[in-house]
Amino acid sequence: MASDPSTRNKVTTTFQQASKYGMNVARTWAFTDGGSRPLQSSPGVYNEQMFEGLDFVISEAQKYGIHLILGLVNNYTLARTLTISIYVVLTRVNTITKVAYKDDPTILAWELMNEARCPSDLSGKTIQNWITEMAAYLKSIDKNHLLEIGLEGFYGDNKKQYNPNNLEPGTNFISNNQIWEIDFTTIHIYPDQWLQPGTSPEDQDKWASQWIQAHIDDSKLLKKPLLIAEFGKSSSTPGYNVTMRDNYFGKIYGTIFNCAKYGGPCGGGLFWQLLAQDMDNFGDSYAVVLQLSPSTDRVIALQSLRLSKLLEYKNRF
């Protein structure tokens, strides 16, 4: 969308809406591999028009006070050539701002892989080695920005019993995040996808609270901040309505606020996914269109206000 000048206004509108309701961090992709309009059509071959679209996203985010977390590769694409992507993306000089990505303060953090998994090696060794190698390489180029892995929060070894529905994706929240170059931990929350079919919305919400608390506790032990990098309420949920989504967001936000209030590691959450009007082709059942959801606007704005006031209070002491 950003690569097409005729639709760039949707990017601007989305950032305008986010800023209006106090949001200051967005997570998006610095990749599109394959398809009809890839950023990288083959290893080392990049589409300049797509790159200029990413330049525009970064420049618009800066304009509206939004900091970006940029994912470098998707779980569902081959990650063997990521070193090439890391170098090309990080050293890219924005054609609009004239600032190299690795030097741009608009970028808050890099994400190695969206929803990192390695089901071909459930021992966890393959992805542990991969993260170790990629994290060290990225930090050798860019020491200015934070780095996270892109984990959903699944456990390995002796904590696998905490994974929903006995999922074993070959990752380990504890050991993966112990890697020195990783600056903060992340989790995703999708009980409607991960739990047994037929699990009630109430039980899904209860499980989500337990999932967050487990990772708050473990992030304390790791001595690293925790970001809830994806959560949402699908419109496919039985009995779904906007009030159900608002209540769910409110519960997640309440946990985040209370954790931050008492000095815990979790101080932020990113819902999936924010869209402007008339972006249906880019959406899914989790899409949030603020112009069409005034009650959800209020839930988000309240959380933004509470966290900003809390930060102001803590900065005075």
UniProtKB/TrEMBL annotation:
Residues that span the membrane, as ranges: none
Catalytic reactions on record: Random hydrolysis of (1->4)-beta-D-mannosidic linkages in mannans, galactomannans and glucomannans
Compartment list: Secreted
Pfam families xref list: GH5_mannosidase (PF26410)
A single BP term in Gene Ontology: polysaccharide catabolic process
Cited InterPro entries: GH, Glyco_hydro_5, MAN-like
Annotated Gene Ontology cellular component terms: extracellular region
The entry's keywords: Glycosidase, Hydrolase, Secreted, Signal
Key word Hydrolase present: yes
The protein's Enzyme Commission number: 3.2.1.78
GO MF term list: mannan endo-1,4-beta-mannosidase activity
Family (UniProt): Belongs to the glycosyl hydrolase 5 (cellulase A) family.
Protein name: mannan endo-1,4-beta-mannosidase
Organism: Nicotiana tabacum
Gene from which this protein is expressed: LOC107793110
